[in-house]
Description:
Blueprint lengths: L1 H31 L2 E5 L10 H16 L2 E5 L8 H9 L4 E7 L4 H10 L4 E5 L13 E6 L1 H15 L4 E8 L2 H17 L4 E8 L8 H13 L4 E5 L4 H11 L2 E6 L10 E7 L1 H14 L6 E5 L6 E3 L11 H16 L7
Parallel strand pairs: 1-2, 1-3, 3-4, 4-5, 5-11, 6-7, 6-8, 8-9, 9-10
Antiparallel strand pairs: 10-12
Helix pairs in contact: 2-9, 5-6, 5-10, 7-8
Amino acid sequence: MTRNFILFAVFFLISLGGCKSKEEQSGAEKKSKLKVGLVFDVGGRGDKSFNDASFKGLEQAKAELGIDFEYIEPPGEGADREAALRQLASQPEIGLVFGVGFIFTNDIIDVAKEYPEKKFACIDFSYNPEITIPENLSGITFQEERGSILVGAIAALVSKTGKIGFVGGMESPIIKKFERGYTRGAQYVKPEIDIEVGYVGLTASAFKNPAKAKELALGQYNKGVDIIYQASGASGLGVFEAARVEKKYVIGTDQNQENEVPGYVVTSMVKAVDQSVFKTIKATLDGTFKGGLMNVFGIKTNDTDYIYNENNKVFITEEIHSKVESLRKKILSGEIPVGE
């Protein structure tokens, strides 16, 4: 009887283990049932910047959370972005749809209203106080102006010629925030600094015209500029090429772009676009998705920041780093007001 009892106990414990395993599997299957849709910004994958960062977030979510995803790259200047959003939202298996870039703002609001049962998120959402954000839409923003203040200070402190430059993609409110912050940070630490500014164009195609960006950058370098901050999406590859040709310096954006021109990238103003995508997907799975409002990824949490590592300490000395971090504290305390 003792032997039978032992056998029964062993069988019972194994059964419990099997039930637990099934529960765990059920939880994993539940998570993996979420499919995410994403429509890229102008320039698409391969821009080594904004879009690639978004895709990195999707890949992380697939690896760590077990989701599946589908993406669309709209042709030309992204005129079909609304149709692309609707195409993804209409698929029953897709529960969350991203629009990557501020040009999606109005379109994603309209589509989110049409599909109230789905979740939506817009990277670099362009906020308008006169428009109500649907409860199923998360407007994701970063503190570009604040981050640009920090790299503007770095550029001014590192520059040997006293002349620095800025090359933006589309002349638009969001890229103006980059320029405004950059100028303000540079002038805060060096009021006498000279700043050259240029934009690739006035339409979304300005984010995928590296030839024009290179032309602008070469013109600035030839005027004595020794550091250019580029905020121009895929067009920025042209600025890196100009830096390579002229053996001058450049500041990247969105992602760490130090490998584009090794030895000539002073720093990069990074936005954790990948983490904003990943965290939004995770929140959707966890049931903590926050819609109907702006979700800000800023300099306090280092989701908007600048690169400081062993590779660029040749530019950003301890003294410069200390000054820039002091500037960060002044921004966070409100001593330096920023109207974002």
